[in-house]
Amino acid sequence: MPLLDIRDRLIVGLDVPTVAEAEAIVSTLGDTVTFYKVGLQLQFAGGLDFARRLVDQGKKVFLDVKLLDIDNTVEHAVENIAKLGFHFCTIHAYPKAMRAAVKGKGMSDLRLLAVTVLTSMDEADLAAAGYGVGTAELVARRAADARLAGMDGIVCSPEEARAMRAIVGAGMAIVTPGIRPAGSAVGDQKRVATPAMAIRAGADHLVVARPIIAANDPRAAAKAILSEIDTALSI
Predict the structure, then answer these.
(1) Is 64 among the annotated ligand-binding positions?
(2) Is the entire prediction scored with pTM above 0.85?
(3) Is 70 annotated as a binding residue?
(4) CA quadruple 201, 118, 89, 225: dihedral positive or negative?
(5) Which residues are catalytic?
(6) Where are the domains of the chain?
(7) Is 189 labelled a binding residue?
């Protein structure tokens, strides 16, 4: 992995219902934040055009679309996404889908992330979905599949980050949602950690939404997380 700017390690999730709200958050955060995630909620409210404007403003964009479809559809969807200037794009970590995405990416600069197991899921959720293995084992299997498929990184909870580094190696990015500063509400997340814990476990990028965008002072909240990241890296 190349040396990352501290600010690029924090990805702020713009998990809001309208572009106007997202624009207000970006304006409030200013130069403190360089990297934003645009997920499904915002994508269906004009978020793709907004995301392209972020790129034009010099921001990095993580398009969290979690593609999973037949090979041909995934391949050509990624071909189109690769033309938009985004930094990251997510694919569900099914081997055929990942191989199709890598083919669609071609020689573009788009970096593909394999979503292993959602951080809102635990052992009981996997069992209810019909999986016969636990969270850690399924994440490990999918991380190994992602490496074989030629993906650029994985998305996993901070609980699995340390073990996954041994599987994916130094060259793949590990992106961890489920980040909750000490004292923050967990919400619907089930596998969580503080920013410092995630960085010390080997995460490259931390995705943080509610603890920043719902804070009384979002800019101060972002700065506090960046400071925690910096401190964790220096230990």
Answers:
(1) yes
(2) yes
(3) yes
(4) negative
(5) 66
(6) 6-234
(7) yes
